[in-house]
Specification:
The protein is of the alpha/beta class and about 300 residues long. The protein contains nine helices and 14 strands. Helix content is about 25%, strand content about 30%. Helix 4 (about 145-155) runs parallel beside helix 5. The structure holds S-adenosylmethionine.
Length: about 300
């Protein structure tokens, strides 16, 4: 197999038929089955444990070279297909681990920050380097929302600050803040996998445990940070960011800085309004249709 490569059968189907078609493919010798979006429909921020599906799905069965794809195509029950067309494709074998490693390269974000995968030497050893590999939780720096936040942290973090990274994912923003000079950071996420990923990335970056705590949302109050945080950064989505307004504002000291990302440009005005009583937010950056808001807690805004 290593020499000859693989073959793929690609089907258009719908969520109701996926399980039966997947089962049929495995029964007929598929080595792996993957699902792809067939209509460019984003699945935004599934909750922990949720695995929502696209409405139009391309299901891909991977077979060895010995499989008779023509016989398989003829045999697929019609009721399992959303579209009569089934495509077959030859897939040359490659060193997949190498391909992946070649695609994820060191990235410069902001003025001083570099995100470097573990298999690369930092291109600028004197820069602020974060060692991070793609993993289970969101946040490698490749997404525009993370990149926008990293640029803002590079501008705003000052030595000694206390920072909260709400929706920490991989912990990339909290770790960046600490490497940029913050004294202490708290990462918060409602997904237990993010708690694990942040802890692993803390260790990988030699960040001491006393500098970076990480917890689930109900545990935040125990840290006694209400009204004392210098900078809160939250890269989630417009809906949760709006619901979280009282929580995030309560953490900030008067004059403390807030950075929000994960919203689309057209969602900015509503979110600015939602925070307006306590924080004067404005659009501080935009990339690929995503906007970042930044501003400070109004001095007169009373901690809740
Ligand atoms: C887009 S990722 C951001 C990860 C990382 N901070 C970054 O900038 O790349 C959003 C994270 O927020 C978490 N999240 C979503 N809703 C949340 C909520 N209501 N409370 C806490 N975390 C939440 C998700 O589990 C996910 O890890």
């Amino acid at each position: 197999m290593t020499e000859a490569g693989w073959q793929e059968l690609r089907f258009a189907t719908t969520p109701e038929k996926v399980a039966e078609l997947e089962d049929w493919l495995f029964q007929h010798g598929a080595l792996a089955v993957t699902l792809e979006d067939d209509a460019d429909e984003p699945l935004l921020e599934p909750g922990p444990g949720e695995t929502p599906l696209w409405q139009a799905i391309r299901l891909v069965g991977l077979f060895g070279q010995e499989a008779d794809l023509k016989a398989l195509v003829d045999g697929v029950p019609d009721h399992l297909l959303a579209d009569p067309g089934v495509q077959t494709e030859q897939v040359p074998d490659r060193d997949w681990e190498r391909v992946w490693m070649e695609e994820f390269k060191p990235m410069k974000l902001g003025r001083r920050l570099w995100i470097c995968p573990s298999w690369c030497e930092p291109p600028d050893p004197a820069a602020v380097n974060i060692n991070l590999d793609p993993g289970l939780a969101f946040g490698t720096g490749t997404h525009p929302t993370t990149a926008l936040c990293l640029g803002q942290l590079d501008d705003w973090v000052r030595p000694g600050m206390t920072v909260v990274d709400y929706g920490c994912g991989s912990g990339i923003l909290a770790i960046a803040a600490l490497k940029l000079g913050a004294a202490r950071a708290l990462g918060v996420d409602n997904d237990p996998q993010a708690i694990t990923a942040t802890t692993e990335n803390r260790l990988r970056n030699d960040v001491p445990a006393e500098a970076l705590d990480v917890c689930l949302p109900p545990e935040v109050a125990a840290y006694g940070l209400q009204g004392r945080v210098d900078l809160v950064v939250a890269n989630i989505l417009a809906g949760p960011l709006s619901e979280l307004a009282p929580t995030l504002v309560d953490l900030l000291r008067p004059g403390g800085q807030l950075v929000l990302a994960g919203l689309l440009t057209e969602q900015a005005p509503a979110l600015i309004d939602a925070y307006a009583p306590d924080v004067s937010l404005s659009v501080a950056g935009e990339q690929a249709g995503w906007a970042m808001l930044a501003g400070s807690r109004r001095p007169g805004s009373v901690p809740g």
